[in-house]
Structure formats: C-alpha cells, structure tokens
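Might I ask for a little of your time on a matter of protein folding? The record follows directly beneath this note:
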Amino acid sequence: MFPLSPRRSLANNAKPLVLSIGTTTLGAITGVALVLTGTAKGGPETASIQQTTQQLQLGHLLVTNTSVLTVLALGGLLIGIPTLIVLFQNGLVIGLLAGTAAGTGELGTFFALTLPHAVFELPAFWMAGCVGLKVPVGLGAYLLKRRDTPLCQRDIVQMAVLLIVAFSLVVIAAAVESQITAQIARLRAQGAVLSI
C-alpha cells in the first residue's frame, strides 16, 4: 500500500500544483492590472454590514467553499478547463479587491479581512485544483508516452489524500472567516481604522 503522506502527495504532484498556484497568481496579477489601468473600476461597497455578516456565517461559507472545491477537483473530468477557469477567477477577484483597496488606501482593511482565512483557504483551493489538473497532466504524459497509464493506483490514493486535506482546510478557513473575519468586518463597519 502507498503511504498516505500529504507532503509526499504534494511532492509527487508538483506539476499540477504549480499550474494551480500559477493560474491563481495570473488571475490576481490580471485583477490588479485591470484596476491600475482603469479598465476595471472599484467603487464604494454597496453591501450592507448585515448582508456581509450573513455571507460570513459558517454554514454559508462551508457550502460555498465545498462547492468550489468540488468544481476544482471534478474539473479534471473535462480536461481541467473548469478547474483552470475557477482558479483564474478566484485570483482575479483577489486581484481586483487588492487593487481597489490599494487605490482607496484601504490595503490594511483588505489584508485584515483576507489573510486570517486565506492562509487556509488558498492552499485548499490549490490542492483541489491540483487534483483537478492531475487528470489532464497524466493524460498528456500518457499521450506523449512518458507514462504507461494516465493515472495509476498511487495517483488516485494521493489525489484522495489531497482532497481530504483540502476539505479539512476549508472547514478551518470557514471557522476562521465566520468568527475572525466577521468580527473585523463589524469593527470596520463601526468606523474602526485598520491600517498596515
């Protein structure tokens, strides 16, 4: 049987993992560039604090983020295209928000609202993206005669390990976001200044 090590699973899937992280990064860079060039304009927040805190409830966050993880992981069944789109889109949103925050002097607020849960959520998305991209990467290697099969039993076990870790991280991220991020959002809505 294969060792169930998350570290080894990540190391053995470096190519799809780098592609996953790179796609999100490209989306973020694009988002910032769109704001800086004036192509995308950020405006004042239109959502009320009540709407924001409703979106930051644990149940809502778990449903939303597990849905994203599922699309990322199952995107491999469609040659990874949905996986790449979702990874890029997540990066794009981060970049648009960061660019807008930088332009309005709210970078401290952006980091305060993002970092506490993003340290768990982004790696979870990248791992699920890695799983979704493993199928097309393995298929490509097989078609180029670099592998005997597109996926082997070891690949499937490692993909399962990565998904278990990813879902665990999403639960942690949702808990942090529903408690810490919601509290920061309430403080910010009351006029507290958050600066870096």
About this structure: Confidence is low (pLDDT under 50) at residues 44-49. The chain is about 75% helix and 0% strand.
